[in-house]
């Protein structure tokens, strides 16, 4: 058994696709219209092509409440790993990404949190 998909709630799939591909550098993998929404996944060019991030619409009322609560409480919805967090931080900051601080070492891990423009906080970390 392996993890193949992980869903990330987003408030706007088109905006999310633009951010995750044009700003973060992910690659669109699957894009299938399903009624008013899409089955939309992206993959990391640095990661396994077998692992897809689903840009899941937060259309369900409970999903909106959950997403907002995490954001308001400063809890990242997911985490991405970087091999050079300082270089990644500088590159993304130049692209307009809003960070909630600077990379900070906490024990053996360096991390920073940023906003994805779609209602989520994302943690970036380096071990």
From TrEMBL:
Coiled coil (residue ranges): none
Pfam family, one: Glyoxalase
Domain VOC: 2-127
Domain of life per record: Bacteria
CDD domains: VOC_like
UniProt xrefs under PANTHER family: GLYOXALASE/BLEOMYCIN RESISTANCE PROTEIN/DIOXYGENASE (PTHR36437), GLYOXALASE_BLEOMYCIN RESISTANCE PROTEIN_DIOXYGENASE (PTHR36437:SF2)
Protein name according to UniProt: VOC family protein
Species: Pyxidicoccus parkwayensis
Lineage: Bacteria, Pseudomonadati, Myxococcota, Myxococcia, Myxococcales
């Amino acid at each position: 058994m392996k993890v193949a998909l992980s869903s990330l709630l987003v408030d706007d799939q088109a905006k999310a696709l633009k951010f995750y591909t044009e700003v973060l550098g992910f690659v669109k993998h699957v894009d299938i219209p399903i009624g008013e929404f899409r089955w939309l996944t992206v993959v990391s060019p640095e990661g396994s092509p077998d692992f897809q991030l689903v840009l899941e619409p937060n259309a369900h009322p409970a999903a909106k409440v959950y997403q907002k609560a995490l954001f308001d409480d400063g809890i990242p919805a997911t985490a991405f790993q970087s091999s050079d967090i300082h270089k990644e931080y500088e590159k993304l900051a130049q692209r307009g990404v809003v960070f909630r601080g600077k990379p900070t070492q906490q024990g053996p891990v360096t991390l920073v949190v940023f906003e994805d423009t779609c209602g989520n906080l994302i943690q970036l970390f380096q071990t």
